[in-house]
Amino acid sequence: MSYSLPELSYDYSALEPHISARIMELHHSKHHKAYVDGANNALAQMAEARESGNFANINRLEKDLAFHLGGHVNHSIFWTNLAPDAGGTPEGEVAAALDEFFGSFGAFKAHFQAASLGIQGSGWGVLAWDPIGARLIIQQLFDQQGNTAQGTVPILQLDMWEHAFYLDYQNVKADYVTAFWNIVNWDNVAKRFAAARANAGASLLV
Q1: I need a labelling partner for 34 at 20 to 30 A (CA). Which of 43, 117, 132, 162 fits?
Q2: How many CA atoms lie within 13 A of 69 on its CB side?
């Protein structure tokens, strides 16, 4: 098995009242696990195709791997982007970068919220580091793997699939996005930002 479900660093109930324990349990143990299983299954079928020399289903398997591995990666980042007793405003390099690339934290927040709420169907709001432009950008990630620029590094992600909020907020997505800011783990965002700037994209510029 190439991929496994990561354990959370907090209890399912730790993010209440912003995200309920029931949603966290279903989201992590059912939805995320399904992506892990799907990615492993796609890899196993690809191995069978190589062994048999029969690549008739390779297009479907490539799409399956992209979708399920995308779901695994996105959720693995999302869980670490959240923390109990967190939220507030970022400090240090993250705060300075948001001011530099978006004008202010308030302007960044408004842009990120609009992008997340504007997703048609399922997807993610993403704050990412673009190594070519050496700047932070906001992206709408469709489903688990579509519409983002190749090579960008996710820094902060917000799951906008209905399974992430519907039991708590029903169809009022704006309330879910507002609640998200109360549990953003800015320390984790800062670590991801520092790592992205230090390591990402160097080979792309050669």
Answers
A1: 117
A2: 13
In a domain, 170, yes or no: yes
Tell me the two tokens of residue 138: 């906001």
Instruction: Compute the residue count for the chain.
Output: 206
Query: Is residue 108 within a helix (H) or strand (E), and if so which, with residue range?
Result: helix 105-117
**Is 114 found in the same domain as 195?**
yes
**pLDDT tens-digit series, residues 54-92:** 999 999 999 999 999 999 999 999 999 999 999 999 999
Q: Which residues of 140-149 are buried (b: 16+ CB within 10 A; e: fewer)?
A: bbbbbbeebe
Indicate whether 203 pLDDT > 50. Answer: no
* Average pLDDT along the chain: 95
Residue 48 lies in a domain: yes
State whether 115 and 152 are in the same domain.
yes
Residue 36 belongs to a domain: yes
3-class SS at 139? Answer: strand
Of 97, 95, 104, the closest CA to residue 197 belongs to 97
Average pLDDT for 32-37: 98
Q: How buried is residue 192: exposed, middle or buried, by Cβ count under 10 Å (0-12/13-18/19+)?
A: buried
Query: Which residue segment(s) compose the domain that 116 sits in?
Result: 92-205
Q: Judge if pTM exceeds 0.85.
A: yes
Handedness of CA 48, 54, 60, 66 (dihedral sign): positive
